[in-house]
């Protein structure tokens, strides 16, 4: 029974974080799993522990993809496949995207009152391994004459962030594939020479996609900062404000951003 509850919590967290991002609360996860918030806290001391449990394996998979790409028989095909695959995974999982890119754009850690030491260790270990694979990936593609000579391995981070900037557009709600168009332009620009532009994989934004400009500030969940307490019903927020624990009711929110 306990294992079944844990599996339900992990499945719910996977879905909730993918949809809402890491600003979602543990009350949101508990509601999706059909359990009480106390059941989540009995298994995970805070949100960072849950995030680590969910995504540690994803980081290992990411490293394996980079290693495989760096060893590809065709260096350029390996480069393109890796860029496309990693971009797709980040684009389709908001929580994973916030975790990966947030390590470079904001302070990591989503749990109140505790330093994200284990998350930082995961970031550091993964980054060290990826640096080795990215360097080999870039240098092999350059040696084959398929990648611009002025590109450095660290450029891959900036290029990745530029591709995923499209996901902040309101139009991304109806055109989640837009990142692929930007990725197509980026990959074409990385070639040292070509006889003509490569056809882009998806069409451009239309006026209908863009819609009318917002009349004022939005409170939509998708536009809240990643470090905020994410979206949730009023009942979910109230449930998490007073978290039942084995020691009684604690009125402090336990899973908010560090320093909030």
From TrEMBL:
The ranges the UniProt entry gives for DNA binding are 25-44
Q: Give the residue ranges for region: Disordered.
A: 190-260
Keywords of the record, alphabetical order, are: DNA-binding, Transcription, Transcription regulation
What Gene3D superfamilies does UniProt report for this protein, alphabetically?
Tetracycline Repressor, domain 2
Q: Which PROSITE patterns match?
A: HTH_TETR_1 (PS01081), HTH_TETR_2 (PS50977)
Source domain of life: Bacteria
Q: Which InterPro entries match?
A: DNA-bd_HTH_TetR-type_CS, Homeodomain-like_sf, HTH-type_TetR-like_transc_reg, HTH_TetR, Tet_transcr_reg_TetR-rel_C_sf, TetR_SbtR-like_C
Domain annotation HTH tetR-type: ranges: 3-62
Compositional bias per record (Basic and acidic residues), positions renumbered to this chain: 247-260
Q: Which Pfam families match?
A: TetR_C_43, TetR_N
Q: What is this protein called?
A: TetR/AcrR family transcriptional regulator
Q: Which organism is it from?
A: Streptacidiphilus alkalitolerans
